[in-house]
Amino acid sequence: xxxxxxxxxxxxxxxxxxxxxxxxxxxxxxxxxxxxxxxxxxxxxxxxxxxxxxxx
Length: 56
Fold this sequence. Notes:
Helix 1 (4-26) runs antiparallel to helix 3. The protein has one domain. It is 86% helix and 0% strand. By secondary structure, the chain is mainly α. It is built from 3 helices and no strands. It has helices at 4-26, 28-31, 35-55. The radius of gyration is 13 Å and the shape is elongated.
């Protein structure tokens, strides 16, 4: 069983990822056909959204 403090740390990092993803996706480089930057943004967003579901 995981410790409560460690679970809250993971959820906090997940929240931080959700806050970082939109600027990555809206960055001017991502809107001008930079596929790698767009892929990283979506990857961060998806992982950040899955963590609370898995840990919850």
